[in-house]
Design brief:
Strand content: 5-15%
CATH topology: Undecaprenyl pyrophosphate synthetase
CATH architecture: 3-Layer(aba) Sandwich
Strand order of the largest sheet: 1-3-2
Helix content: 40-55%
Number of domains: 1
Number of strands: 5
Order of helices and strands: HHEHEHEHHHEEH
Radius of gyration: 18 Å
CATH superfamily: Decaprenyl diphosphate synthase-like
Shape: globular
Bound molecules: 3-methylbut-3-enyl trihydrogen diphosphate, magnesium ion
Structural class: alpha/beta
Distance between the termini: 33 Å
Largest sheet: 3 strands, parallel
């Protein structure tokens, strides 16, 4: 979800926060549209471990105001629409109140499976892999057979969400041509769609267009 800051600037706003506020609304629209299209998993890159380097006011707004506010406000919607919610990342570093709300919404939606909406929060693809390696090493020190029997499927059990399938499609808004430390293990064969549209201007129609474009791709997975 990139381009919130540039969107705010384009509007003549003094504050990048206005772009994040609008971006949160768009996120909810996209969950609705994805459900209508039959998409089963959505993972939104919401806050990276690198985003802590932003001004404190912006970080506080995202993590201690916007995020808990939306979690609280949208809990009933998620239950009604049977949206399974999960947060992926190092959640312990988030403000306590935000952590409590994450837990509450995760618990309230734990039985749903039609559509999964994940927020990558304080997320880093490299950290996810590194944490997996550390967990495996700790286990292997007690049971060395863990190493011999390790394969790609078993490695997945050490990631933030072992049940998260590899994404079919990565959509990046605002025209940037990089992966930015997102789902590094899982993106190995993901199709990439990049649009110049800034995230706050992204619409249900744009989402539909991206999914349509994906439908035309010829996925060969290294074959011919
Ligand atoms: C995405 O928009 C939101 C977050 C990364 C939290 P940006 O805030 O990165 O917007 P730009 O890239 O400055 O326009
Ligand atoms: Mg950005």
């Amino acid at each position: 979800m990139d381009g919130n800051g540039r969107w705010a600037e384009k509007q003549g706003s003094e504050d990048r926060i206005d772009g994040h506020e609008r971006g949160a609304k768009v996120l909810c629209d996209i969950v609705e549209e994805a459900k209508a299209l039959g998409v089963e998993y959505l993972t939104f890159y919401t806050f990276s471990t690198e985003n802590w380097s932003r001004p404190e006011k912006e970080v506080d707004f995202i993590l201690a105001d916007l995020l808990p506010r939306y979690l609280e406000q949208k809990m009933d919607f998620m239950v009604k629409e049977q949206v399974r919610f999960k947060a992926l990342g190092d959640i312990q570093a988030l403000p306590d109140h935000t952590q409590e709300l994450i837990k509450r919404v995760e618990d309230a939606t734990v039985e749903f499976s039609e559509i999964h909406a994940n927020l990558a929060l304080n997320y880093s693809g490299r950290s996810e892999i590194l944490n997996a390696v550390k967990d495996i090493a700790a286990k292997a020190s007690e049971d060395p057979s863990v190493i011999d029997s390790l394969d790609e499927d078993k490695f997945r059990n050490y990631l933030y969400d072992p049940e998260l399938p590899d994404p079919d499609l990565l959509i990046r808004t605002s025209g940037e041509l990089r992966v930015s430390n997102f789902l590094l293990w899982q993106l190995a064969y993901t199709e990439i769609y990049i649009t110049d549209v800034l995230w706050p201007d992204f619409t249900k129609e744009e989402f539909r267009q991206a999914v349509g474009e994906f439908g035309k791709r010829d996925r060969r997975y290294g074959g011919v």
